[in-house]
Design a protein that fits this description.
536 residues; Alpha-Beta Plaits; 8-stranded mixed sheet; 4-stranded antiparallel sheet; 15 helices; 17 strands; metal ion binding; zinc
């Protein structure tokens, strides 16, 4: 069925479209001259609109979608059709109205249709307490038989980044179709695989009548892709209020890499013990508008473009070996072929050489330094008017050996170096502390043991997560935070994250369920054995 060919009992979208048309009409009458003025005007107009009108609209949508999905036999595919239809609507100015509605839809589809139907034991067991947090996130408490054992926590997230069929996907991005042994769809790698793997493992272990000795939490955030400020942050707030302290936390992150690290003899499981910090900077230039027939020597666009060019031509300094990536390569050294095994075993001498080689590749360059990515550039409203305002946004991922303050200082004074360019910090946070990974570290060693239970000959090493996860919000609840996705990734898979043809293999999904099934049982020991768990 085409997403636009809805049956007569479909949800009425007229209220949404009318709300949008009212706003769009007001914008056209005002004709704002730049993006900032446009955003401010939209906020003013939104505030004037009836609060009850907006609230009733959003509140009514779970019931409307419930009726349609029920009419289609509870088909989750029909939910995805609704999602795709909303993605076609023109919400380019007030896009968060669309996001709000999509979240309401997702909350209903996940909680009422997908989860309860797929995992009935999880949602009916007396051993499991489930609650919604901030309306859309999920917090589970699985009660253990020995309350004196400190609990741990597993994290995953249910939200995904956008995707469009126009991007040449082999199958529709929200179909969940299987092709040649792979399950395709946005979120299969980031991070629905973990969501489904955790819940499937819990469902199975409960069905078998197994009662875990050590209790544990499961947190499924709904807004990780937009910093987790409503989902993960509120889960943490609840746990703090209840006085919870966690033995360790496991979230998405690094994985089992097969053929990605050149020269390594066999696959390696990397358990990230830290993640990079991040900041977004807004660069802007303003000057009086003028006619294109009488252009000034320099324009806002030219000045800002020059600043952006300086950022790209002057990357941050090399820091390879000064963060957790150093420990990673030292652990892996004996698995590299000669002469790399000798080089990796002596980073104190060869780190500068390795850094120069690694920075040539966009993936390995992320381990070398704080990265700089210009992600947005906005300027101009008409082809014959010199833009009075230009802005660009820069996304930076901060190496563990640097601080947020240092990065801001370097970019402001050394790299941009132009007082006409205004630099504002949109947000930012320092790199995360490095979690312990020695032989006495319960969380790391239990995760490692679980990997080795499945792959006895696997090399396991600490690593660094170059992206950011919800786990960073949990640092006050535990000093042992690890980021590991129990899936095998091969060359080319990294480009599928947030990209086209995101997919996971049947073997990977089965392996994720097995991993969490084993992890639940491995965590039931009171303390680690005196002998190291190192099987390598």
């Amino acid at each position: 069925m085409n997403v636009l060919e809805w049956p007569s009992q479909s949800p009425d979208l007229n209220p949404i479209e009318n709300l949008w048309k009212d706003l769009k009409t007001a914008v056209h009458k005002r004709s704002p001259s730049n993006l900032t003025e446009l955003e401010l005007f939209c906020k003013e107009e939104w505030a004037k609109m009836s609060v009850s009108r907006c609230a009733n609209l959003v509140e009514s949508y779970p019931k409307r979608f419930a009726a349609v999905i029920a009419a289609k036999g509870g088909s989750t595919k029909y939910y995805f059709m609704l999602y795709e239809y909303l993605c076609t609507l023109d919400f380019s100015v007030f896009y968060f109205l669309k996001i709000m509605i999509i979240r309401v839809m997702y909350h209903f589809a996940f909680t009422s249709q997908l989860s309860v139907t797929s995992f009935p034991t999880v949602f009916s067991s007396s051993k499991v307490k489930h609650e919604l947090v901030a309306n859309y996130s999920h917090l589970f408490w699985v009660q253990g038989s020995r309350p004196e054992l400190q609990p741990y926590m597993l994290l995953a997230h249910t939200d995904v980044v956008p995707a469009s069929e126009d991007d040449a996907w082999e199958v529709p991005p929200f179909s969940g179709d299987e092709k040649d042994g792979f399950i395709y769809g946005r979120g299969t790698m980031d991070d629905k695989g973990s969501v489904m793997g955790i819940l499937a493992a819990l469902e199975y272990i409960l069905m078998k009548g197994y009662t875990p000795q050590r209790g544990f939490y499961i947190g499924l955030g709904h807004d990780e892709e937009v910093h987790g400020l409503n989902g993960a942050v509120n889960i943490v707030r609840l746990l703090k209020e209840r006085g919870v302290k966690l033995l360790f936390v496991l979230d998405e992150g690094s994985a089992i890499l097969d053929g990605i690290l050149k020269g390594l003899d066999g696959p390696a499981a990397l358990i990230a013990t830290s993640e990079k910090g991040a900041t977004v900077l807004k660069l802007s230039v303003s000057m009086p508008p003028s006619h294109a027939s009488m252009p000034p020597r320099e324009t806002t666009i030219g000045i800002l473009a020059a600043a952006v060019k300086r950022l790209e031509e002057n990357p941050m300094k090399r820091l390879f070996g000064l963060g957790p990536e150093g420990g990673m390569f030292e652990h892996l050294a004996h698995k590299f072929r000669f002469p790399l095994n000798f080089v990796m075993s002596n980073l104190w001498l060869f780190a500068p050489l390795i850094a120069r080689i690694m920075e040539r590749n966009e993936t390995t360059n992320a381990f070398v330094r704080t990265t700089t990515a210009v992600t947005m550039f906005n300027a101009g409203v008409k082809e014959n008017v010199i833009a009075s305002y230009a802005e660009a946004f820069v996304n930076m991922r901060i190496h563990s050996a640097q601080t947020l303050k240092e990065v801001h200082s370097v970019q402001r004074w050394s790299t941009v170096g132009d007082p006409r360019v205004k630099i504002e910090v949109v947000y930012g946070f320092d790199p995360l502390p490095i979690s312990p990974y020695d032989e006495t570290s319960f969380g790391f060693q239990i995760i490692k043991k679980t990997v080795l239970d499945m792959f006895p000959s696997m090399i396991v090493a600490p690593g660094m997560c170059i992206a950011n996860t919800d786990s960073r919000h949990f640092k006050d609840l535990s000093s042992s935070i690890y980021r590991f996705t129990p899936a095998i990734y091969k060359p080319g898979d990294a480009q599928r994250f947030h990209g086209i043809n995101e997919r996971t293999s049947r073997e990977n999904y089965e392996g994720m369920v097995q991993f969490f099934f084993r992890l639940f049982q491995n965590c039931d020991i009171k303390k680690l054995p005196d002998v190291s768990l190192d099987h390598n």
